[in-house]
Write a structure and sequence with these properties.
This is Peptidase family M23. One of its GO terms (molecular function) is metalloendopeptidase activity. It is found in: Cell surface. Keywords: Membrane, Transmembrane, Transmembrane helix. The chain is of the alpha+beta class. The chain has 9 helices and 14 strands. It folds into 2 domains: 148 residues, Lysozyme (Orthogonal Bundle); 124 residues, Glucose Permease (Domain IIA). Strands 3, 6, 8, 9, 10, 11, 13 and 14 form an 8-stranded antiparallel sheet that branches. The chain is globular.
């Protein structure tokens, strides 16, 4: 009898230990996620520009590497950097990443390895720039001039300029005894292949904050997938799965006009709304998209909808593996961005 009592108590303590470890794990994951979300909002980024096909052929691999660091929003910056570094040609070290490893230029002879090293170095300079509180242009210039430029800018106003880049270049030339140090006009050269600045998008548009499509039901769903590289392709939105696979009502994230309401083989029953009164920092009209609804939408093309108006029910139509809402935000038509930049998905 005593032996059973001992085993019972021992099992009880094991159970408590497992619960404590699980709670600790949840806390760590939550803190890391909050840090990542805050990190992505700090510097801002740029829209798409004109990039040659010789560089675009590497886009899937660049997207895959960016996803490792949670930096899918910086795709256009990396494509522009790659264009500048490679000269738009089929260079083997297409991101000129050899020097970040302390090797002579063009030592790397594998484009995929160049991308792997180059994106890793880009993440390093972005992380340091975020921690220093400087702008994204400083991070771009640091890709060319090295991490020291970030500290230099942080000590001189916190914002990149051509003048600061030239001053830093002159200091490093004098310090190292070199005749050339970096390209003080690197940012301007990279921007030739970039679109408009998206700035720090934040959650507020010029008109106001977009609303969670599950507003008022925040305790009835979980986020199952974020925007980013997944299963060999780019996942272009955020997936929200109702608890118990229930068909939760889906509401419009803001006032707007329904530009599509119908069925597609991949998206299933879906709705796309143009929000003319919701404009990003770059001046683009926002669009939202709602996929995998359970049945035909309750709104029609051309219909004006209000923020919070029910447009359908959550389902699993189209290419879907379970009941969920795939929700997208487009900064301009067809330009998917991280929905978390505009919508608060945290529990209330």
């Amino acid at each position: 009898m005593k032996k059973l009592t001992f085993l019972s108590r021992f099992g009880k303590w094991i159970g408590i230990g497992i619960v404590v470890l699980f709670l600790f794990f949840l806390i760590i994951v939550t803190l890391l996620f909050q840090r990542e979300e805050q990190r992505q909002d700090n510097l801002g980024s740029y829209g798409a520009g004109e990039v040659p096909e010789s560089v675009l052929q590497w886009q899937p691999y660049i997207e895959q590497e960016l996803a490792k660091y949670g930096r899918a929003d910086n795709l256009h910056v990396l494509l522009a950097i790659t264009t500048q570094e490679s000269g738009g040609t089929a260079s083997l070290d297409i991101m000129q990443a050899s020097e970040s490893l302390g090797l002579p230029p063009n030592t790397i002879q594998d484009p995929l390895f160049s991308i792997e090293v180059g994106v890793r170095y880009f993440d390093e300079v972005m992380t340091q720039a975020e921690n220093a509180g400087v702008d994204v242009d400083t991070a771009i210039q640091a890709y060319n001039m090295g991490n020291g430029y970030i500290n230099f800018v942080a000590q001189n106003g916190g914002k990149h300029s051509g003048e600061l880049a030239q001053e830093f270049s002159n200091q490093m030339k004098a310090q190292l005894g070199w005749s050339v140090y970096g390209d003080p006009n690197y940012v301007a050269h990279v921007k030739r292949y970039l679109g408009e600045s998206l700035g720090n998008l934040g959650k507020d548009t010029a008109f106001g904050q977009l609303q969670n499509p599950y507003f008022g039901q925040e305790d009835k769903y979980v986020v199952t997938s974020e925007i980013g590289w997944r299963w060999g392709r780019m996942h272009k939105g955020i997936d929200l799965a109702p608890l118990g696979a229930t068909n939760l009502p889906v509401a419009s994230a803001g006032e707007g006009t329904v530009v599509y309401a119908g069925f597609s083989p991949t998206g299933g029953f879906m709705v796309r709304i143009r929000h003319d009164e919701y404009v990003s920092d770059s001046g683009n009209t926002l669009h939202t998209q709602y996929l995998h609804l359970s049945q035909p939408p309750s709104v029609n093309i051309g219909e004006l909808v209000d923020k919070g108006q029910i447009i359908g029910l959550t389902g699993t139509t189209g290419r879907s593996t379970g009941v969920h809402l795939h929700f997208e935000v487009h900064n301009g038509e067809g330009n998917q961005v991280n929905p978390r930049h505009f919508v608060d998905f945290s529990p209330h």
